[in-house]
Amino acid sequence: MQNVLIGRATELSRLTVVLDTAAAGQAGVALLGGDAGIGKTRMVTELAERAEAAGFAVLVGQCAELGDALPYLPLADALRSVRGELRAELDARPVLGRLLPGGTDPGRESTSGLTQQQLFGSMLGFLGVRPVLLVLEDLHWADQSTRDLLVFLSRMLQTEAVCLVGTYRTDDLHRRHPLRRVLAELKRLPSVTSVELEPLDPHEMTDYLATLGGTDARVMREVVDRAEGNPFYAQELLDAVSAGCSMPDGLAGLLLSRAELLSDPAQGVLRSAAVAGRRADHDLLQQASGLDDLAFDEAMREIVSRGLLRLDGEYGYAFRHALLQEVVYTDLLPGERIRTHAEFARLLTARGGSAAELAHHYLAGHDLPGALAASVEAGRRAERLGAPAEAHRHFDRALGLWDRVPDAERLAGIDHVGLARRSADAAADSGDNHRAISQLRRLPPSAEVNERLAYVLIDTDDLEGAIAAAHAAVEAAPEGPVLARALATYARSLYWSERHDEVEALAGRALETARRSGATDAETSALITLATLAALAGDIPRAKELLACATAESSGNLAIDLRAIFNQARLQYENGDLAEAAVTTGRGVRLAQETGLNWSTFGTDLRFLRLLIHYVAGEWDQAEQVASGFGVRVGTPAEALLSSFALFVEVARGLPRVEERLSWLEPFWPADVTITSMGRGLAAEHALWRGDPESALEHALAGLDAHAPDDPAVIRLSSIALWALADLGRADGADALLERARVPAEVGPGTVRRGSMGPEGLAWLARAEAEWRRAHGRLDVAAWRAVVEAFDFGFVYEVARSRWRLAEALLAAGERAAALKEWELAVEVAESLRARPLATALAELGRRARFVSASSALLTAREQEVLALVAEGLPNREIGERLFIAQKTVSVHVSNILAKLGVSSRTQAAAVARRDGLL
Fold first, then answer.
1. Looking at the DSSP assignment, which residues form a beta bridge with residue 420?
2. Residues contacting residue 819 through CB under 8 Å, at least 6 positions apart
3. What start-end ranges are recorded for coiled-coil regions in this protein (predicted)?
4. In what order do the strands lie in the sheet with 162-169?
5. Cα separations (Å) of 275 from 205, 287, 826?
6. What is the pTM of this model?
7. What is the number of other CB atoms lying within 10 angstroms of the CB of residue 817?
8. Which one of 25, 556, 608, 858 is separated from 181 by 20 to 30 angstroms, measured CA to CA?
9. d(C-alpha 851, C-alpha 916), whole Å
């Protein structure tokens, strides 16, 4: 049942309180409402299991859609299941026995009301015999007699050990529904608890789908969007979509059955509303329906009262659920659908409706010229609004219509190649580089097309293809802005290639051509490339100067502006200017958000850089907050890239979601170097913290194999691989790994000799040197002190992690006092960061070193108080009462204590506390 309770802990807790109160001898009533399929039955099933475990008799009765034809139907249904001692009590009450098969109908035996009075009294006495959970399901179908019984029991149950639960569908309670009055009356009673199940949020729904076996991120996203938080709808859709079906018959039938209760005019209006979409304007819907004011208002009153449409805004309506709109629309006959769309297109044209709406209705109404023109205009408007994904969708639809529409270029106001390039740019801006490449490759080659193709290919790490396309662009480009862009992109494409030596001359030529022709975007692109060359050569002041020029004003190309800001922030970050890097990154992230380029290459890069800055600066709560926005269940390379960076703080804090995140990232490792580097490197660290150096070495070596020898990422991966070798007590391969770490620090692409690296790169190289010595069995104090000093540019966590090894080395050298000092500093940082794996490692070192005087520093004052009471053998509840804190808070403290002391049980924690003098 655990999967059903995702996102329902609060509601279940409220129901459990009513049950617990009943167990203590004070009867309670719970009314559980929610839309069909929202999870009411599953919730009461879980409650019933808890009730049975607590010794309650569980009686469940189901109402049926029969009106008042069968009085007390749910009560009779519940009593059928009575067994044991309750059966004898039931048999002793003839009035109740009449409800069972073969009994006399108590609702028809007398018109005096005496029989009902006797039945109610008998039921009250019956329920007082022993603890009982009585569940009456689907009260929206209850007959009058059952509603009367519900009111009676809710008022009269007092000291009986009875929990009465009634469920009902909120979406079936139209304005005149008889249950409405009853609910309003009951909710005023102090003994009644009202619980309404809201739709699950997207994260909860994704978790729920995962428990059902959902593994495809694209399918899960589609289901989450369509189900709108309803678990039953989600389960049905997941099964259907996984089988290649859009809508399961059972779900469609369920939704349509409610629409079929409407009068003919109301059904007609509902069908028109379905053609309008999820939302419809009052006047537009009335005109499309063809009804006069009075008839339309009556039809809408009927539809709204039955919960099919709801008021939306000041003057409109919206479907209660998107799936209802979908099934009503699908149920339309083809001719009916086309005519209604055409009518909406006519009405919207007269009213000056939005281009996106017009495009939709023109296309569905088979007006292809109108659809093409409106689609292009909708794409232009989406561009202006900073919505590149929508712009691409509109442009792509226009391209699909192009060959079917005479005089398409005149209608679109742009030629076919221009529109395709615009569509590809929008695709790239929305993060879909592969779609952009596909569109560009289908176009006739030209300088402009090849330059755009090369630019996007660079962002997918296809350098060979990028160089070929960029060279072709330069060869074909006329003098002027086109040549300037081609040269700038050609220079950028050669940066990491064997032809790196040609980059500076090409970038300089691009800069001159751009300034001469006024191509600001090409000028900015060339400046960025020249800045990266300067940084590679170690000329940081010049690199900063060039990037300041590149970011001084907009280039006219947002993607290039974001690239400039990212490179400026990265330069600041890599040189230890964390405060400046944070400001620059924040500016870039805001620009990406405001312009809709969040998922573009550099919009994505700026977001992960923001996380890294928080991580390095020791602002881990902020880093974890940023990481929580990076989806675990990823379906695109951009999502996977962000997800891989979330692992930094999650691995370092030992958070439980690490394993799930890694499992979703693994399919992306073969295709993307950065995702491989981050994912494999952090998977290796995770394995090392779990005591599995073999797996760690495998991950680190696989990450290394994905990189070119001169890539700076190799240094960190090599140091992790050396850490694994040292933990394995092996030196084989250590020399080769250290050599691999040294190459990027000395050699750049082509024949370039790299200038001085930034402080982080140098610190990782120092770590690799120290780990190499450890792999050879030497705990070198000087080497580890150099690592601490190297990371002390502001990398809080790595300083602490290096102090851990330095303390080890000092102990081996017999310098106990110095080791204790380094250990205490590391413990303090691990505690403040909540870096549990490091804290556990430090605790183990502290025990081996018998740092008795400092062991207490490992625990906070509150944790020491909790540990003392744990050692007394008190459970969490009593500890909470003693310290005036919540039981859940005690549980968190106990978990932290076990982790810090490196033990797995409370008994072991008490033993360690006594041994090390912590009590």
1. none
2. 806, 807, 808, 810, 811, 849
3. none
4. 57-62, 132-137, 162-169, 28-34, 192-196
5. 28, 13, 65
6. 0.79
7. 7
8. 25
9. 8
321: CB partners within 8 A, 6+ apart: 35, 228, 230, 233, 255
Radius of gyration of the CA atoms of the chain, in A? 35
Are 44 and 165 contacting, i.e. CB atoms less than 8 angstroms apart?
yes
Q: Report the C-alpha dihedral over residues 254, 259, 261, 265, rounded to 10 degrees.
A: -160
**What CA–CA distance (Å, rounded) separates 482 from 517?**
9
Q: Which residues contact 122 (CB under 8 A, 6 or more apart)?
A: 93, 95, 96
Residues 864, 918 contacting (CB under 8 angstroms): yes
- Which residues are registered as beta bridge partners of 311? 317
Q: Tell me the two tokens of residue 162.
A: 């009875």
Q: What is the DSSP letter of 367?
A: -
Of the listed ranges 69-73, 611-615, 707-711, the least confidently predicted one is: 69-73
**Residue 787: pLDDT over 90:** yes
Q: Which contacts qualify for 211-215: CB closer than 8 Å, 24 or more apart?
A: 211/2, 211/3, 211/6, 212/3, 212/238, 213/238, 214/238
Averaged pLDDT for residues 124-149: 90
Total H helices, total E strands in the chain = 50, 8
Query: Which of 682, 723, 719, 716 shows the shortest CA–CA distance to 699?
Result: 682
Chain-centroid distance, C-alpha 334: 38
How many Å apart are CA 808 and CA 810, to the nearest integer?
A: 6
Confidence bin at 424 (pLDDT 50/70/90): very high
- Answer yes or no: are the C-beta atoms of 637 and 623 closer than 8 Å: no
Sign, Cα dihedral of 327, 328, 329, 334: positive
